[in-house]
Amino acid sequence: MRPNNFLTLKRACELLQVHPQTIYNWRKNGDFPLPIRIGSRKLLWLESDLLDWLDVKNGCPPAIDARHV
Questions:
Q1: Residue 45 phi/psi, 5° resolution?
Q2: Collapsed DSSP state (helix, strand, coil) of residue 44
Q3: First-last CA distance in the chain
């Protein structure tokens, strides 16, 4: 089962080992999981969504999670 932690932009960058501008570019191109907006400025991502997205980008099927069964 994948972790369901919420990640800030900084933590998402650390997980994916990319610069924040890379995530901004992916979002602009529609090629990144949608964030959860908290208030008017705070964006968070589910760690499991980012790991699934990364699996798909690497040509692997996303992990099957009990939530989706």
A1: -125, 145
A2: strand
A3: 12
